[in-house]
Amino acid sequence: MIKVYGYPNSRSLRITWLLEELGLDYDYQLIDFAKGDNRSPAFLAINPNGKVPAIDDDGLVLFESAAIVSYLADKYGDGSLIPALGTAARGLYEQWNSFAACELEQPLWTMGKHKFALPAEHRVPAIFATAEWEFQQALAVLSRGLGDNDYMLGDSFGAVDILVGHILNWGLKFKQPIEQANLNAYRERVMSRPAQVKALERETQAMEG
């Protein structure tokens, strides 16, 4: 059984959400940051960054949510959530997968690091204005890429929509305006999927014990 190391309201939701979409059973291991679980020797042996998510799939240990999503969709999705290798659709998948991690999420995580994640002496409040501007630039590119499509690759929901939808939701939680009508409709469409709701409940229940 796939083991998922996670924490509610983190990137681990991307993994549990995908597994719910795939209908796979999994063992959810809560890594409680408040208790320092993420800095324990046992967890650092799994992810030396001390972050979630990470997975153990029959002895294969992976971290980095975008990589995990692609791996799981390739291995278990039977072509339903990720395009085949070597196709034009796969090229577009890789493009938006990379864009989500490197351009769309990056300014939000910059805000997060300088608000709470970094040690206080390394936080630079002056960075916020630049990060907010960068996020708006990324939104403009994403909106043009989505166009009139229901999902990033067309009419069908796929693994890349998990990353993009989750990051857009983070944007609202970071109180960043999303003014593009197509992105707001897209975010609501993606985040209302039953698998996302079920995954969030699973993670929340683990936190509540």
Structure description:
The protein has a 4-stranded mixed beta sheet, covered by helices on one side. Helix 1 (12-22) packs parallel to helix 3 (65-76) and helix 1 (12-22) packs antiparallel against helix 6. The relative contact order is 0.15. The chain has helices at residues 12-22, 41-44, 65-76, 88-117, 127-146, 159-173, 181-191, 194-208, and strands at 2-6, 26-30, 54-57, 60-63. Helix content is 56%, strand content 9%.
Topology:
Layout: E1 2-6, H1 12-22, E2 26-30, H2 41-44, E3 54-57, E4 60-63, H3 65-76, H4 88-117, H5 127-146, H6 159-173, H7 181-191, H8 194-208
Parallel strand pairs: 1-2
Antiparallel strand pairs: 1-3, 3-4
What is the CA-CA span between the terminal residues?
A: 21 Å
Count all strands and give the number: 4
The largest beta-sheet arranges its strands as: 2-1-3-4
Structural class: alpha+beta
Helix content: 55-70%
Largest sheet: 4 strands, mixed
Count of DSSP helices?
Answer: 8
SSE order, one letter for each helix or strand: EHEHEEHHHHHH
Shape: globular
Which spans of ≥5 residues are poorly predicted at pLDDT below 50? none
How big is the Rg? 17 Å
